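Protocol step 4 of 6: structure prediction from sequence.
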Amino acid sequence: MTDWYRKKSWTQNDENEFFLKLEGARKDGRAQYLKIQALELIQTKDKKLLEIAETLINQLFTDYPNDSFNKSVSLHSFGEIYELSGNYDRALEYY
């Protein structure tokens, strides 16, 4: 069984389950769960899922602005998202 924060899909059910579990997770681990889920979606290389990953990373930065532990990986993930989307100039900004 896949962990709730390692989905390779993003149905309405997946989204509902993720945010329900995220809300119940320890506060100091929530940014990491957002990051891990975004990384899983990036690995699919699916355009729609890349958009979801971008949203999750944006939420990480909005909700946990002082979380420096997950920041560098998340910035690199933005680079991956934009590279896979063909926006190479923006990808370079984040790499």
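Step 5 (inspection) to follow. The radius of gyration is 13 Å.
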